[in-house]
């Protein structure tokens, strides 16, 4: 992440640490183990109407091998319910391709971040309509 923040002129180690600590909740964080070695981490922060994927990091030696996609698919299947998944990724980050390959689409962006969403399968209750049918 540091190279992307430096590219955007936003690298500030104090700010990065404060932002991480403010959003870090151990109960929502999982360590990614590969052969008994910590390869990274991912957090899924539940909100009432959405789930935020945050703090998704893989050590460089584990990147580009399909591990990120496997972890993301696993999290999205085991945490799946009626709420969409959301995340933000830095502008120009190669991680965006990972998220888009796994069903995320751009919702909006600002000069620093791109905000992505992945809808989940919603059950339609009798007498109601799904979001997709409402948009048609």
What does this structure look like?
This protein is globular. The C terminus is likely disordered. The chain is built from five helices and six strands, in the order H-H-E-E-E-H-E-H-E-E-H. By secondary structure, the chain is an alpha+beta fold. It has one domain: 3-Layer(aba) Sandwich (Aminopeptidase). A six-stranded mixed β-sheet has the order 1-2-3-4-6-5, covered by helices on one side.
Fold topology:
Blueprint: H1 2-7, H2 13-23, E1 29-34, E2 37-46, E3 51-58, H3 67-78, E4 85-90, H4 95-101, E5 105-109, E6 113-118, H5 131-135
Parallel strand pairs: 3-4
Antiparallel strand pairs: 1-2, 2-3, 4-6, 5-6
Cα distance, first to last residue?
39 Å
Q: Catalogue the unreliable spans.
A: 122-136
Coarse morphology: globular
Q: What's the Cα radius of gyration?
A: 16 Å
Which structural class fits the helix and strand makeup?
Answer: alpha+beta
State the CATH topology.
Aminopeptidase
Q: How many helices in DSSP terms?
A: 5
Most strands sheet: 6 strands, mixed
Strand order of the largest sheet: 1-2-3-4-6-5
Q: Compute the average pLDDT.
A: 82
Report the portion of residues in β strands. 25-35%
Helix content: 25-40%
Order of helices and strands: HHEEEHEHEEH
CATH class division: Alpha Beta
Integer count of domains:
1
CATH architectural category: 3-Layer(aba) Sandwich
Write down how many β-strands occur, each being a DSSP E stretch of 2 or more residues: 6
